[in-house]
């Protein structure tokens, strides 16, 4: 029986439970899926048709074929019971292993109906349009099915006659409770751990071939990368093309004005200061783009004899300290947009411009992204006259923080080593080297979305969930 009241769901009798289980088993035999879909007049669609009897709905099985169900990554205990609340504006679900109910807004449930009319399973995308959504929708009936080894499902009948069924584990993984939110957002793939010079003693190192051939090693490397924004690979082939192979293993590289990959070596008439032997101060790459690359890779093919060491500073760590110790300077750097410009020719001719603050913050006013590159600051500075002097003082003070010995690590890469770092967090630089050296590094960019995508795909396969 389906509860249509807004109080506690009535206790089923033992007979009712037996009948319900029998009906469920029959439905499972006749249909490969228990998904509920709308059944139109004269049109037989997969699922379960509903009939109204008094104030309650009962279901009868239609002659249906198999329907693929939206896959669930992590099985959980089935729901015990479900009830309507808030005059049909909420659906409350009780669980076998959780004292508190999970409460779901009706509008969210209706928006996320998984039936073929509302959701394209092969694309894993919603087809229902927001313009057709009734934001005041109410549920008229709810039933919690499952138990006895059967997968738990929650069925909802809507006031417009539409029917929806949700896997219990699908719902549980989308609970709106504060504890559930904290658990999801506090997952390892979302943690970012600030660091300073102490990381030089424990710089995360991974064997290149192991990462390329072992999913768990790939997962562990990516988690460490997300957390620290800096990892090192060892024993990669000291030849061109390695980064393209690595990019394919993850997903894809991000092309830039330098092409799919670029080669850092001393060049005549360089298009970038990196293509000279001079010292490079700490900076972020390609911030003249509207959306800077999230990930940078540098692969050492040949190293110089003297000089050429790389320096790294965690902009997340330094900007947090800066916000605490220099709040007025910090405020200026998060509110003042800097004009950026890049002119040249490499893979093609380019003249890019953008405006962005040196430090970007999230909704809690916490530093989340650093965009600093002195070489790319345009001589055009579109700020009021009275802002110029205070801004320069703030910028200079922040750069001093970035370069404090306690925040900087230095590492001279050997041939066959690859460094991967978060370009929007970790600033990098380089010591000068002999202009006669044949030092060569191959570089490439990726988007951070690709990193998270790979982690999600590995999770889908059960990797890293032990």
Mean pLDDT: 84
Q: What's the story with the biggest beta sheet?
A: 6 strands, mixed
Report the principal-axis shape: elongated
> What are the segments in which pLDDT stays under 50 over at least 5 consecutive residues?
1-76
* Spatial sequence of strands, sheet with the most strands: 11-12-22-15-24-13
Tell how many strands the DSSP assignment holds.
Answer: 24
Keyword list:
disordered N terminus; 24 strands; 4-stranded antiparallel sheet; 25% helix; 6-stranded mixed sheet; alpha+beta
What does this structure look like?
By secondary structure, the chain is of the alpha+beta class. Helices cover 25% and strands 29% of the residues. It is built from 11 helices and 24 strands. The protein has helices spanning 14-30, 106-111, 168-172, 178-185, 208-213, 215-228, 242-250, 315-325, 327-335, 385-402, 448-460; strands spanning 48-53, 56-61, 79-85, 90-95, 98-105, 119-120, 125-126, 139-147, 150-158, 163-167, 205-207, 230-234, 261-264, 280-283, 295-302, 310-314, 337-345, 349-357, 359-361, 367-370, 408-411, 418-422, 426-430, 440-446. The strands form 8 sheets. Strands 11-12-22-15-24-13 form a 6-stranded mixed β-sheet. A hairpin with a 3-residue loop joins strand 17 (337-345) and strand 18 (349-357). Helix 6 (215-228) packs across helix 11 (448-460), helix 8 crosses helix 9 and helix 9 packs across helix 10. It is elongated, with a radius of gyration of 29 Å. The model is unreliable at 1-76 (pLDDT under 50).
